[in-house]
From TrEMBL, chain B:
<feature type="transmembrane region" description="Helical">
    <location>
        <begin position="638"/>
        <end position="657"/>
    </location>
</feature>
<dbReference type="GO" id="GO:0016255">
    <property type="term" value="P:attachment of GPI anchor to protein"/>
</dbReference>
<feature type="transmembrane region" description="Helical">
    <location>
        <begin position="533"/>
        <end position="558"/>
    </location>
</feature>
<keyword id="KW-1133">Transmembrane helix</keyword>
<keyword id="KW-0472">Membrane</keyword>
<dbReference type="InterPro" id="IPR007246">
    <property type="entry name" value="Gaa1"/>
</dbReference>
<feature type="transmembrane region" description="Helical">
    <location>
        <begin position="20"/>
        <end position="41"/>
    </location>
</feature>
<comment type="function">
    <text>Component of the glycosylphosphatidylinositol-anchor (GPI-anchor) transamidase (GPI-T) complex that catalyzes the formation of the linkage between a proprotein and a GPI-anchor and participates in GPI anchored protein biosynthesis. Binds GPI-anchor.</text>
</comment>
<dbReference type="GO" id="GO:0042765">
    <property type="term" value="C:GPI-anchor transamidase complex"/>
</dbReference>
<keyword id="KW-1015">Disulfide bond</keyword>
<dbReference type="Pfam" id="PF04114">
    <property type="entry name" value="Gaa1"/>
</dbReference>
<feature type="transmembrane region" description="Helical">
    <location>
        <begin position="578"/>
        <end position="600"/>
    </location>
</feature>
<keyword id="KW-0256">Endoplasmic reticulum</keyword>
<protein>
    <recommendedName>
        <fullName>GPI-anchor transamidase component GPAA1</fullName>
    </recommendedName>
</protein>
<keyword id="KW-0325">Glycoprotein</keyword>
<comment type="subunit">
    <text>Heteropentamer. Part of the GPI-anchor transamidase complex, consisting of PIGK, PIGT, PIGS, PIGU and GAA1. Interacts with PIGK.</text>
</comment>
<keyword id="KW-0812">Transmembrane</keyword>
Amino acid sequence: MSAEPRAEQRPQFRPVPKALKYIFGLGLGARAVLMSSHLAGWLQDRLELASPVTSWTRMTEGLSLLDHGISPYEGDMFHETPLVLMLFYCLSKIWGGLIPIFFLLVDLVTGCLVHEVGTNVCRHLLEKQGRHVKSYSTDSLSLLLTGKQLNSVPRLMLGAYLLNPLTIASCAAYSTTGLHNLVIAGALLAAVQGNRLLATLATAVASYQCVYPEIFIIPVAMYIAQLEQGSRFSFRDPDSRLSLLQTAGGHFSWLGFLWALSFLPFGSMDWLYSTRGFVMLAPDLTPNMGLFWYFFTEMFEHFRIFFLCVFQLNAVFYVIPLAVKLRDHPMFHLHLLVGLTAVFKSYPTFGDAALFLSLLPVWGHCFKYMRNLFLVVCMWLYSIVLAPVLWHLWIYYGSANANFFYAVTLAYATAQIFLLTDLLYAFLRREFHLRHGPAPKEGQGMPILMNLK
Amino acid sequence: MGLLSDPKSRERFSRIAAKYNSPLCVLAYVVGVVWFLALAYKPFNHRTYFSENALLPGLVEGKFRTENVATRISQAMKDIKDVSKDGPMPVAWIVNQFRGLGLDTYTQEYIQTIPVPSARQSEEQGKEMFVQLNGTNVYAILRAPRTASTEAIVLSAPYKHYLNMDHNNHAFGLMIALASHFRKSSYWSKDIIFLLVDYDEIGMEAWLQEYHYTKSPLLKSSPLHGRSGSIQAAINLELHSDQVSHFNVKLEGLNGLLPNLDLVNLVVQLCGRERITVKLHQQRDTFPSEGWPAFQQNLKTMSLMMLHQATGMPNGLHGLFLRYHIEAVTLEGVLEPGRSTTGFYRMGRVLEGVFRSLNNLLERFHQSFFFYLLPASDRYVSIGMYMPPFGLILLVTALKISFWAVYIGTPDPDPWDGEENVVIEHIHSKKTGDGQGDNTDSKRGVTKIRTQNYSDGDVWSLVPVVSCCQVAGFIASISPMVMTGLGHLFGTRPYQALITGATGMFFASLFMPKCITRNRLACTVNTLRLWKCAALVLQAIILAATAAANFSLGMLLAVTMVPVCAMVRPGKLRFLQAVLMLLVSPLGLLVIYTGLYLLLTETEYHGVVPSAMHLCTVVYYNILSGVIHGYVLGTWQYTLLALAVFPNWLFFWCIVFKKRDVPVVENKEEKKTS
């Protein structure tokens, strides 16, 4: 079959609005019920849902310090950014009842943003497929995306975000992780729309708020440059370089603007050490679902700086090899980074992982090449169930010890890493099949085996 | 990473796992069970040892000589009792005894509301819905001369005995004797709290809650006026007479918690030093300690410990301390006719030794094991030793999971079908938009023989069935309370209403498969495989989490549920499967294990019918106390069974009765892409 008739049947992508209102209603209802139940107080102190940065208990502490005219950043208690603090301060001054409503709204808006991200990425994928379809193998017709296939994706993504028990619990715990997810989802949406001004602003807001999205600027810059340059894009091309630099420049100027804005309420930059410094230096070793705390409690103090560098580099370094390997797929790269930072950041919560999970349906067409999906699902379930049990045994009953809980956090991180690597593998393998047909043969006519070493 | 990334070794693994699946499962299960049972045999377990060197047991010379005080006080208390049989605790008299020794003495009053009638009160209160218990605890603090009351040790005793409601006057006598001896010494570096508790568990809970400033809505108590520091350890004393033949050491606490093995070991060693026999669950250590009879005896002791631990109910007041991270054991002095006996002198010396060792502690108990089983008083099986066999038993589930996971979505010969491999499929043209769009031959109503065309299991079909099961579990968890409330309206006796609530949902849900089979949730073979897979995954999670929190419960559930649930398949031999499933249902397991417990403990056999009646009565009381303890003390065994184990079991039950031959409604291809 030639490429011509395929080009004519350009797949139509029409997301279905069906069932959206049910998802919204159900998500909202579950959150409201959980918030008003007696479980809410218990959830607020769950370390799986609230890290020292995002904990609501600490936020109330910050608000009360602010009320007494003391800068919350002078102590070692409060680590949220000044703009968020001021936001909650205003809300609590207007009416305390606004705060739960605000958290509900944040999650709903994030859901909408995720839905829009889905719509836009699907459209982007189809357009891209249309551009590249000529270079694909003629046998790979069955692998091509169809509009029908993608129509339900945004809906699934919305459901995966709003109906995910992890985000529901996180919202009921008043964890500001919801807010972090909102800005990250905003960054993803702005990025996929390709407007430089908006995209740089959104990544700046996300990295202002949660530090790690700083690395998002690399795939975002590549994406914008590719939009502008089209097929001429190359790292060596001066125009492309200029475009990359412009995006980076835009990002950092927005970030500078946000920092300046945060300077105003307190008239000092102390907050920078308490927020960004706190995330980077990880001084609080209270157990959480991340990899930092156990390692750093066990370590001799004089190795601390070295390993801090190693751990933080580990969190951000993958952006470079991925930028090389996924040069043509910056959107996929960006989504992988969301997952990577959710595992390797210094204070992760379940909410962070939930955002990445809700992005997965858009890559659903790669799932059939994934090999460990079942294993990952099982590991995930186990760690989510066992984490509170072993925490209880360790902290309340004193019969288990730190190793028990750490084992669970390790399993949790491993599950996420498996998921990420598997997704990357599946994506690359699909790309390979698109170019070489669904069942490529070796020289001797044997079906070849794919191997990841 | 070879297995995860290399398709060749992966294929080899899955081929082996699929080909030899059943033999491997049987092997894993048999080896797991045999290995676990073998742990009771001496060469496979270890001798207990002191991990905490600070205890220095038996290093000091016992100076206890006030046994005559014990005799006098216990007699005096008995005389008061005879005047007011079954009356309230003689608080003023007890306070006077402590005050007479010059101790800081305080009382604490409390009111416990029991949302259901308590076992004891029901006869008197009749149909009264909420029972209120009033009680008074008396405690006295011996202030340590050497420190500023930062740490404390507790010697507690219930006012009445746990089971037969006899007065515990001997323990009180010994307590006063020890107090009078202790207060003369200047070496105490920890406060000693002497606590006499009214209404055993409830009084203990009231005191501990107030001491640690935790609150419960059902328990109101007056504040404690005297306090000491953080409690390091506690010894609870129950004496049935002034002469005892042995000490029965009770360990199992609330929700299967156990005290640190060092404390247990300390008590056992010091009893040995004073030549007092120690028993666990009234089981004597055997001599010689090897050989078949010894193995049988050790296995019996270990089984009794596991059965007790699995209930999650404390078998003495010490059990409530454990929740507050305080190590505690109960010493029950028992008089067995025909054995040599020991008086207050030796008992006092044992307790003196224990308290002097505890006095030496520099930090909290943390060294030795918290997770262990004891086949004999001086042998232990630690978590590292009992987890591998448990893992082997769970491996059966894991193997089955991998087996079905391999087969989901394969057109390979169906292991469920054998020769009748051909599946008649009714292809429905209802497409939900995620189909491939290219099977032009799919028309409504066309029946065709499926040979090559296959579909993955329909993941979404899990949602209704799992949620139905969970809702059933939720109803079962709240129904005892609801039924008690309803029963009150209709004048039913609260007991019967409660039992109806607890078991009614179970019997009602047996008919759930009927409801599911009739509706649109008909399944392809692959969907059923997926169901089975999901049910096994859930089961493995529940068992692993349960075993982490309460090993005995996890093990007892696993050893029975795993083989049956691994075998379950829809269709064939439905009656046999149903019988097996009923046996491993939560209620069935309760009956089986209660029967096992009675078999191990009761020596006399009265014939089939009386034994069965007795079994029913015990099961009835077990359910009652499980539910009531859940509300009063916060044990979670009933909730766990209702919210996790029961729904999972129901899921398997639905699979058994799932009709596979029902025409398939949907043929969704490429389902995995969504």
